Amino acid sequence: MRAGSKGPLFSAASIVFVTFMLFSPVASAQSVTVNLGTIQNLTNSPNASTAPVVATVGSHVYVAWEEKLVGQKHQTFFMTSADNGTTWSAPMQFSMAGGASPQTSAVQIAALGSYVALTWEQNNQTAWAISTNMGSTFTSGMFTVPSTLTGTMSGEAVAACGSWIYFSWSDIKTAGGRPILFVAAHDTGGGVFTFTTPKALSSTYSAHLEDEIACVGNNVYAVWDSIYFVRSINNGVTFSSARQLAPTGGVSGSLSREPMIAAAGSDVYVTFPSNSNGAYQAYVAVSQDSGVTFSAARIVSVGMTSTREVQVLASAHNAYITTRGKDPNTGGTQEYVYVSNNDGTTFSSPILAGGAKLPNPENGFGGLAANGKGDVYVQWIHNPSGKTFKGIQQIYLSASQDNGTSWGAAQQLSQSTNGTLGYGDPNGGQGPQVAANGNWVYSVWVDMSTNSGDVYFMASTVPTAG
Q: Can you tell me the distance from the alpha carbon of 354 to that of 360, in angstroms, rounded to the nearest whole number?
């Protein structure tokens, strides 16, 4: 992906400095052992299912995915459970013209209160679906884009706060730039949503993709590749000018891409991999004033090499980052976690997920979930057989009950005989594939052992802390 032009830099007076922690949380097999649930095949269909996502509110669990119908293109499906994943509704299909994306622009999900929101690429455009009754029924459609912005849509994202739902996507025009587009949907009463006209957040920047959004209260935050950031304090009515958070300078051909964003209270975290120093490292830029000012982007993967696939989660005053990477002292690519318990002021040294090196290299994304009560989970895909991507990869989970200070041993969730698909490229979706609520943690993945690939689900619990 081609990096875009540079945006405005921060003044020295505006920077909130971030350092990295002197203490290092450790993995401990005695920290917490998850009580693994029963593996459920949710789709059990002859069709090829892929790119599942999961979300939860209370005892309600929501799963969406893409499925290739026989003789047709991919379509988006949805299921809901009201009893922590014990029983499920029948699959609901969103039937629209053309096909959905089976991978990087596949369905995304946000859930809050009684709302469930989905978005995905459909027939090279951006589709949306909103439920106001916990997934029982949906209103759905396609965004109508002004002719001056019309192109091929990809990289959809969704977030929900209060009575607002926010959508973003990248517009790959056949000529001209690639603006990041945005729509706000507002419940004006009685579950009736009004939508703003799609507008460009990045109209002065070209060749941009990989957008992500987050929100807290009336504040909305968006990022995209080359690591540009904008903020709105009025539910997306107006946005600040784009500013670039990526490190400046670097080696020839340096690349900052695949940004992720998370927010809690007045804290905003933007993470991304960059090879600005000649090798990929994981960076974080932190704002403690709702995106008004940011720290200079710093390397969080200190001492690591080939660090990619960066994910971030914010919960109260805590922030969690997970990446794959190589520790030169131990060799081989593994999953790592980095923890802050002070609003991103400092971060831990890299923590090996599960506390012990797994056989063979890790080659996918990791994911994070937290319940807001100190329980945190990291889930990732690993191939203990040594085969790649469609080999015998399995899904693993590690848990903490003390805000990331200590972690339990890696627990294998899947029991695949023909490999699983988790996060990331190629073949996997973009998540989230793990969600948490109360003492429940929910995991989804694609297992290639049955049919042409089915969506598998597990509902697990953790013992009460203390």
A: 15
Q: Distance (Å, rounded) from C-alpha 142 to C-alpha 271?
A: 30
pLDDT over 80 (residue 252): no
Rounded Cα–Cα distance for residues 291 and 88 (Å): 40
Q: Residues near 13 by Cβ (< 8 Å), separated by ≥ 6?
A: none
Our CA dihedral for 148, 150, 153, 157, rounded to 10 degrees, sits at 50
> Rounded to an integer, what distance in angstroms lies between the CA atom of residue 57 and that of residue 113?
7
Cα separation, 309 vs 430, in Å, equals 10
Q: What digits encode the pLDDT tens for the residues 112-159?
A: 999 999 999 999 899 999 999 999 999 999 998 887 777 788 889 999
Name residues whose C-beta falls within 8 Å of residue 348's C-beta, 6 or more positions apart in sequence: 20, 21, 23, 24, 25, 337, 338, 339, 340, 404
Q: How far, in Å, CA of 33 to CA of 39, rounded? A: 17
201 contact partners, CB below 8 Å, separation of at least 6:
168, 179, 180, 181, 182, 222, 224, 230, 239, 242
Name the 3-class secondary structure at 407: strand
pLDDT above 90 as % of the chain: 65
- What pTM did the predictor assign? 0.91
Mean of pLDDT over the chain: 87
Q: How many other C-beta atoms can be found within 10 angstroms of the C-beta atom of residue 86? A: 13
Closest CA to 233 of 219, 243, 222, 223: 219
Residue with tokens 């990809």: 154
β-pair type (267-274, 281-287)? antiparallel
Q: How many Å apart are CA 257 and CA 276, to the nearest integer?
A: 11
From CA 228, how far away is CA 211, in angstroms rounded?
Answer: 9
Distance in angstroms (rounded) separating the CA atoms of residues 206 and 244: 14
Could you tell me the residue ranges of all domains in the chain?
34-79+355-466
Taking Cα atoms as reference points, which of 212, 217, 248 lies closest to residue 230? 212
